Amino acid sequence: MYAAVDLGSNSFRLHIGEALAGQIHIVRTARDPIRLAAGLGPDGMLSAESMDTAVRCLRDFGAILRQYRLEAVRVVATNTLRVARNAEALLPRLEEAIGYPVEIISGEEEGRLIYMGVARALGPQAAQEKRLVIDIGGGSTELIAGTGDAIRLVESFSIGTHPQSAAWFPGGRIEAAAFDAAIVDARARFEDAAGQYRAIGWDGAVGSSGTIRAISEVISRNGIGDGSMSLPSLLALRDKLVALGHVDAFDLPGVKKERVIVMVGGLSVLIGVMQELGAERMGAINAGLRLGVLSDLELRANRHDRRDLAIQDCMRRFGVDHGRAARTAAIARKLFERLAPQDEPLKAQLLRAAMLHEVGLAVSHTGAHKHAAYIVEHADLPGFTAREQRLLATVVLAQKGNLRKVREALAVPELARAVLALRLAAVFMHARVDADVEAIRLRMKGRVEIETPRGWLRQHPTVAAWFEKEAAAWIEVGVGFQVTQAA
């Protein structure tokens, strides 16, 4: 069984699922409408009260997770924690409360996971269908175009139900002029990208967020418009809301009282995006981010990790020499394993860093390792969290030159071993001594100890020169470096 926890701007949600016969069956769900985005002040800081509420919620979720034997758990945070200036201070509290790392994912990664969830729910019968997926969250909206399981275009837009409601429907008032202005504002957010989505086209459009499902439920249960999620029905719902004048006057079945204001903001976004894209109708589906996270965990368990595909795509994009990268990764693996690492996930990250260590050559040979680190940290790499990309970038930056720039990272013993493995692997790759690496003994316990066969350094004089530079670099950050020959 796997667990997915979604720290959204409106609600925190939990899914526990079990993979059976090609499907993921949800065995437990939990939801807490904590309205995190409402705790975000004009200064971009989350209030103490909102942070305390978030911690309390994750403490409750942690108690639920401990009731199950889980193969993997992934906790993802979306827009509000992406933009909150004090998110980094809150993360350790959240992680302690739930007992698992919390990943702040990019809007594009959020969109990819949403699409994965929708594709999984629709199943193989829709494998050739061209579809547009719209997800309107509390702080952002994701648009994803794809065919079957394959994503062709994904973008995240900084418009969601909370800021839209706060800006255009203050105090719950619903006025015609404000509603029309809210729709125009939404259209403006999507107009630059609309042409790309129209060019790709779609056989059907589906909405995956809770807000869109609530709108669909209200329309169908109350026979508004034609009873379906067509643009005329959405406009008819808008007219009904304007006629009521205030969210407190809304008493139609299909949405809880406290969610009416969320629905109003979401409706203005949905009308805007459908008008701008030229979409006449859509459906609503009870699938999205959480099912996508569960599907991704299942793929990783079956060794189909999207992160490895992202590395290959990045290498192609920047023209990395695959042969040189693969040789470096193979040497780094051998060296790292000799250092008796305890962190298996770190080994995978080291190998990915090795595959990308020369990506900076696409910018310039001068300072290529610095260019590479910047690219690795800031590139759109599907499947990676910002934290993982920072780790990759740190290892890539440390591949050569002085070690002062990563001194803080070297305080973590396992990470220091990964850095050593990549630095030596790059040296050995350049010197073309791949086969002779087997004869070298390597240790790192307090200091770096390298033992070569007798006469080995005479056979590889450039390596001997590099060892002198390595010794100076490590000694400068307080780590001894000793090279000896076997007796």
TrEMBL record:
GO terms for molecular function: pyrophosphatase activity. Keywords: Hydrolase. Residues 20-300 form the Ppx/GppA phosphatase N-terminal domain. Residues 307-467 form the Ppx/GppA phosphatase C-terminal domain. Pfam families: Ppx-GppA, Ppx-GppA_III. This is Ppx/GppA family phosphatase.
